[in-house]
Amino acid sequence: AQSVSQHNHHVILSEAASLELGCNYSYGGTVNLFWYVQYPGQHLQLLLKYFSGDPLVKGIKGFEAEFIKSKFSFNLRKPSVQWSDTAEYFCAVNAIARQLTFGSGTQLTVLP
Amino acid sequence: KAGVTQTPRYLIKTRGQQVTLSCSPISGHRSVSWYQQTPGQGLQFLFEYFSETQRNKGNFPGRFSGRQFSNSRSEMNVSTLELGDSALYLCASSATGRETQYFGPGTRLLVL
């Protein structure tokens, strides 16, 4: 069975700080990887995705993620966070049977 | 294109009752998936429908069921509601299931 681990449950940063959120998955085959964001009171939105090709993918709002196959990781990064980035971030894997398996989520709080 | 829509947005039910939730996918999308989101368990996959057929089911009791119509709209039914069924129920659509899934705003169900 596929599983996803997000080790940071709550991250607090000041504006302009750099961000890296960890995501590890367990599945040995081909995977599609996603990061979704849930802003307060809003629905899940896609930040970025990796299907194949360049392991460094860029998403919306300045976010990027790097797929490292040997480490089964897909970490999310942003060089300089803003107060408006305060949200919950979910890593997800689609490997088998067309279902998304989500990590437990990371609540990011950016202090102005 | 219009996004995924879900109705109703909020529901209050009592234990033992049943409830039906509705989801309209993005136009042209034939795969509809349902997820349950709770603070304790996070986002969990319920089931996925494609061309009116359930292709995959998560680890939920038989009280949770669904169906899909010929226009790809989907309904989810929960019978004999329990307090633990209180959650945000999310619907997501994609073209065939392996691509990016786009989420609706969810139906928040409260069971008293």
Descriptive notes:
The complex is a heterodimer of chains A (112) and B (112). Chain A is mainly beta. Chain A has strands at 3-5, 10-14, 19-21, 24-26, 32-38, 45-50, 56-58, 64-68, 73-78, 87-94, 100-102, 106-111. Chain A is built from no helices and 12 strands. In chain A, a hairpin with a 5-residue loop joins strand 7 (56-58) and strand 8. By secondary structure, chain B is mostly beta strands. Chain B has no helices and 11 strands. Chain A binds chain B through residues 32, 34, 36, 42-46, 49, 90, 92, 94, 97-105, and chain B through 31, 33, 35, 42-45, 48, 50, 55-56, 58, 90, 92, 97-106.
Summarize the structure.
Chain A is 0% helix and 52% strand.
Unreliable segments of 5+ consecutive residues of chain A: none
Structural class of chain A: mainly beta
Radius of gyration of chain B over alpha carbons? 13 Å
Q: What is the number of helices of chain B? A: 0
Task: Please give the radius of gyration of chain A in angstroms.
Answer: 13 Å
Order of helices and strands of chain A: EEEEEEEEEEEE
Pair of chains with the largest interface and how many residues each contributes: A-B, 21 and 24 residues
Structural class of chain B: mainly beta
| Count of alpha/pi helices of chain A | 0
Sum up the overall morphology of chain A in one term: globular
Oligomer: heterodimer
- Average pLDDT of chain B, rounded to a whole number, is 95
pLDDT averaged over residues of chain A: 93
Could you describe the largest sheet of chain A, including whether it forms a barrel? 6 strands, mixed
Succession of helices and strands of chain B: EEEEEEEEEEE
Main β-sheet of chain B: number of strands, strand sense, barrel status?
7 strands, mixed
